[in-house]
Specification:
single chain, 91 residues, alpha/beta, four-stranded parallel sheet, 3 helices, 35% helix, 19% strand
Length: 91
């Protein structure tokens, strides 16, 4: 299988990537250090990668950004970071 793993170099992602690399062709998508440069908060970035990468058998997404702080310390903008990345990036 040819698998795109988005966030495949992250804390959890590298374990998933190493597991699948044993028996599959794996392409890591990441903002900085991946096989392909992919920013899940930018729909044009996603579209470009998918148009140029060729046929895939699976996509695994283990990516997303969020601000961690006490609830009282988070601003409205802080929430939008997670919504744009973790929610809309997955959609």
């Amino acid at each position: 299988m040819k698998i795109l793993i988005i966030g495949g170099n992250g804390t959890i992602g590298h374990h998933v990537t190493n597991h699948f690399k044993e028996t599959h062709e794996v392409i890591v998508g990441a903002r900085k250090n991946g096989d392909v440069r992919l920013d899940i908060s930018d729909s044009n970035s996603i579209k470009s990668v998918l148009e140029n990468i060729g046929k895939l058998d699976a996509i695994v997404s283990i990516a997303g950004e969020a601000k961690w702080a006490l609830l009282d310390d988070l601003t409205e903008e802080d929430y939008y970071i997670g919504l744009k990345s973790k929610l809309m990036g997955q959609v």
